[in-house]
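Q: What residues go here?
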């Protein structure tokens, strides 16, 4: 554990954070964790505890690698906004300009999955719809709507058809009727995977090459890739079983080698040090040291609430699973954004933004408090425990200056 006494965070109250998280490990709900709080340019608090593999008793170490899943989404959105800053991409452009399969999208109106009834969409899916999850696309794992079932019939997230790369996957996504007309609601979806394909088409590079050349390389994020750069450091993936957490070897082994589909929505593996560098970049308006990826104005634009009329997700979204609460929380370009801490029932800050991953990883950035928080572990699903809201309660209660 490390702690800096000059960052306005009370050491005794941060001990409560550690004790609370350690209880999750000690009673078997989590294999281990690493939590880090940065404030005023310093590591205010960092604790790694527990095991990255329970069978071998290998400990969580500062350089442990984690499947960050949907924490890939903000990186993909930053990539797209870098192209936007070059005027190579317009947020109002139809996605079909870059992925022609989305030319004539249709909206589901009824019928079973094998024979859905559809109608033409009232407007095309636009780039901004992908960034805000308002495209009408979905995820197969939602399992609550016919469009989810149709998507599962086209492509399984964990075992895509042989020979399916990102381009082919997006063509399959385009065959699925939309849940709603673009721009009329919010639904967590494969939209950021499609955005990753747009980055490929516009840049002329594969997504992994674009990330390496323009984001990961400049930021010295050498541990971050679409597979584990060192499998010996990769944490085992766990899931909930009838008697505790169990290893998910079939799903987990995918991170050991380069995938066929470069998923901009959930494909990266990273480390605490690497992802903290990314969050520090966001906190400082697109700049980290001498490296600038985005302008301050662009980052400010991305981290505003882009939902129509200033609505929150509770008002505008479909109340399904997402990596964030719905009340008091809006959505920007690639991030959830807290717009009303009172409505969210958390003593956080208006304007703080972040996102999480399917294996319970999480981060948020609070410009008002000059603070970033990253939490790493490896348990699916991320809705298994209320760790994310508890993290905010414990971190903000330690702010005493």
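A:
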């Amino acid at each position: 554990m490390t702690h800096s006494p000059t960052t306005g965070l009370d050491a005794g109250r941060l001990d409560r954070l550690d004790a609370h998280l350690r209880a999750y490990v000690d009673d078997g709900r989590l294999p281990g964790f690493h939590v880090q709080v940065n404030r005023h340019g310093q590591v205010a608090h960092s604790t790694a505890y527990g095991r990255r593999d329970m069978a071998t008793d290998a400990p969580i170490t500062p350089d442990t690698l984690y499947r960050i899943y949907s924490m890939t989404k903000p990186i993909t959105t930053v990539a797209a906004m870098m192209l936007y800053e070059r005027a190579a991409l317009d947020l109002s452009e139809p996605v079909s300009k870059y992925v022609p399969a989305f030319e004539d999208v249709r909206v589901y109106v009824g019928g079973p999955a094998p024979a859905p009834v559809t109608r033409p969409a009232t407007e095309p899916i636009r780039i901004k719809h992908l960034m805000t999850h308002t495209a009408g696309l979905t995820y197969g794992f939602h399992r609550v709507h016919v469009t989810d079932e149709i998507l599962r019939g086209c492509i399984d997230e964990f075992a895509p058809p042989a020979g399916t790369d990102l381009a082919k996957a997006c063509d399959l996504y385009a065959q699925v009727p939309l849940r709603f007309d673009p721009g009329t609601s919010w639904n967590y979806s494969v939209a950021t995977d499609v955005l990753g394909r747009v980055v490929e088409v516009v840049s002329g590079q594969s997504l992994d090459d674009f990330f390496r050349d323009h984001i990961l390389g400049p930021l010295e994020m050498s541990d971050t890739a679409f597979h584990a750069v060192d499998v010996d450091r990769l944490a085992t993936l766990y899931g909930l079983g009838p008697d505790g957490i169990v290893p998910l070897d079939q799903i987990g082994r995918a991170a050991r080698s380069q995938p066929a589909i470069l998923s901009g929505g959930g494909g990266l593996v990273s480390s605490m040090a690497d992802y903290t560098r990314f969050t520090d970049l966001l906190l400082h308006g697109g700049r980290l040291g001498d490296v600038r990826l985005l302008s301050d104005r662009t980052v400010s634009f991305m981290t505003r609430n882009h939902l129509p009329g200033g609505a929150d997700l509770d008002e505008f979204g479909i109340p399904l699973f997402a990596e964030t609460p719905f009340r008091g929380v809006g959505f920007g370009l690639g991030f959830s954004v807290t717009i009303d801490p009172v409505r969210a029932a958390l003593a956080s800050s208006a304007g703080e933004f972040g996102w999480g991953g399917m294996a319970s990883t999480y981060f948020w950035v609070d410009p008002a408090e000059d603070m970033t928080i990253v939490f790493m572990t490896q348990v699916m699903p991320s809705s298994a425990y209320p760790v994310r809201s508890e993290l905010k309660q414990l971190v903000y209660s330690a702010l005493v200056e």
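A: Context that may help when evaluating the design: The chain has two domains: 2-78+205-397, 89-203. The two ends are 22 Å apart (CA to CA).
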